[in-house]
Amino acid sequence: MTALATARRDTFAALTVPNFRRYFAGQAVSMAGTWMQAVAQSWLVLELTGSATALGYVVALQTLPVLVLGPYGGVVADRIDKRRLMIGLQSMMGLLALVLGLLTVTGAVELWHVYVLAFLLGLNNCFENPARQAFVLEMVGPDVLRNAVSLNSVLVNAARAVGPAIAGIVIAAGGLGVCFLLNAASFVAVVLSLIRLDVDALRPSPPAARAPGQLREGLRYVAGEPTLFVPLLMMALVGCLAYEFQVVLPVLAQDSFGGDASVYGFMTAAMGVGAVVGGLFVAARGRTGLPALIGTSLVFGVVIAAAALAPTLWLELFALLLVGAGSVAFLSIGNSTLQLEAEPHMRGRVMALWSVAFLGSTPIGGPIAGAVSQHLGARVGLLMGAVTCVVAGLLGLLVVRRQRARDSGVGSGAQDDEVVGGQPRPVS
Length: 428
What we know:
It is a single chain. The chain is mainly alpha-helical. It has a single domain, classed as MFS general substrate transporter like domains (Growth Hormone, Chain: A, Up-down Bundle). Helix content is 80%, strand content 2%. The chain is built from 16 helices and 2 strands. A hairpin with a 2-residue loop joins strand 1 and strand 2. Helix 2 packs antiparallel against helix 5 (111-140). The longest helix has 32 residues, at 18-49. It is globular and about 55 Å long. The chain crosses the membrane at residues 54-75, 95-115, 165-195, 228-249, 261-283, 290-311, 317-338, 350-372, 378-400.
């Protein structure tokens, strides 16, 4: 086998699984629509209010339910059939997009409509996110899980490149409301893909029986496992203040570069292109574990700082390419590390906490990023995220070093151990 063929096989290994391939195709359509809506919704709020703080509130309302109910969403995901749960929840997401589209097209939309629909979407997400993330392992198995997670991240970010570009064209031709209507239609693809999966080929985790204290059980389990707790802590920090691009970039486009919705679309698309390249690299050659996550967090902070300081739009777009690559690498490594470390009957709860750390921290970080961007400038908002990434990486590094120090003092053969993901493993 040639080197090129081997690289192609390694990069796209998960797509050899028929169920994942079918699911991947449905998600490709839906994700493009989701990013169209994200761009259109941000610009709609700016048109209605002219306020970055209001934009932060919308993002906060969309993620507040994940913060409050996200852990319980993981309990539900561990109890019931994840595929059926996703069919129902994805259908509801399409309905919410349809309502926003009709309100916007008819000119009846008001800010409180956006607030309410954002909150309902967040309520839906707190149950859909853990089910969707844990369902990937049921489709592909552990051997190609990291590859599947990375390809899924590539898909999300390819959609980030394509969706905003389409949104810019659609907004110019038909207005903001058409973006919401097209997103509503896109959910048909993902729902049909879930319905058409070969159920016999799935590897469902044993459902957790209903019992009191399951939420507390999940929290205790994570707290006792450094390889789970530390990535979640890092994600909570980074998710809170660094992943607020939906709040900061529209302000950066408008205030720093004097741009309109199309400039914001190009900036978002640049991040998406970088994420595709970075995601493909992680899919083929990426690693899991705490050391890999720590290094990625530090690099992510550096490239966000470069984006904050870029003096021209072209340099900004180049920096955002690197930000996109760092973003997908951090998410993919953290996600796959948690799924591989978690016990099967706990996976839904663990991934719910991942969603809480990533999305649930936004009700705190979104308004902060919005206020900082409005009063101090979007560049300061980006620098705040850069510093947060570096702090998270340094905290993770401190934990790993302490773990290694403890391991080196246990047993005469401790010096022959290799620490992988924060846990010792004999060198083969």
